[in-house]
Amino acid sequence: MELITLQKHDSQWDAIFNVEQQELSNVLGHHVAKIHHVGSTAVPDLLAKPIIDIAIEANTFPPSQAIIDQLATIDYEYKGEAGVQGRHWFIKGHPRKFNLHYCSIQSEVVTNQLKLRDKLIANESFRRDYERIKLENLTNKDIDSADYALAKSDIIQKIINSTSLP
Predict the structure, then answer these.
(1) Which regions of the chain are under pLDDT 70?
(2) Rounded-to-10 torsion of CA 117, 137, 100, 43
(3) I need a labelling partner for 51 at 20 to 30 A (CA). Which of 39, 64, 144, 145 fits?
């Protein structure tokens, strides 16, 4: 079990994402339309698990066995949909370094991830509220804890559905 730990934003996370983005582009080629840095590591001034979330908008969806095998060559482990319809999930690293959300182009999953990221970047009040919920719910929880994800779901929906900019 890998316990949740939160840390202050690391300015290296963007550079790490950029390297991984290039590796994913090299391996997946024409199967990928866009690759996004999402999740808390993409938001300056927000406590985050030191795991970089990557969202792929894929031309080929769902991922074929050949795509799953290609991702395995760069150490991604396939986890299936894992409870999120419209997203195929891959993880990389021990301890975990990356979560890869493989989705179709303009999927609701990616659209919501981008809305959340952009609204957290733009709104300090949202960042503080989200951070508070994360801190209140992380004790002795595994990094893939359903309880932790559920505890954040209300604030995430509130932020996504807010009419404040962006």
Answers:
(1) 164-166
(2) 30
(3) 64
pTM: 0.95
Count of structural domains, the chain: 1
Q: Is residue 4 part of a domain?
A: no
Residue with tokens 């890998």: 2
Q: What is the pLDDT of residue 165?
A: 57
CA distance 59 to 140: 39
Residue 144 DSSP SS3: coil
Report helix, strand or coil for 85: coil
The span from the CA of 17 to the CA of 110, in Å, is: 17
CATH of the domain at 135: 3.30.460.10
pLDDT at 162: 93
**76 C-beta neighbours (distance < 10 Å), count:** 22
Cβ–Cβ < 8 Å for 129, 122? no
Q: Which residues pair with 101 in a beta bridge?
A: 55, 89
Query: Could you identify the residue written with the tokens 């590796």?
Result: 23
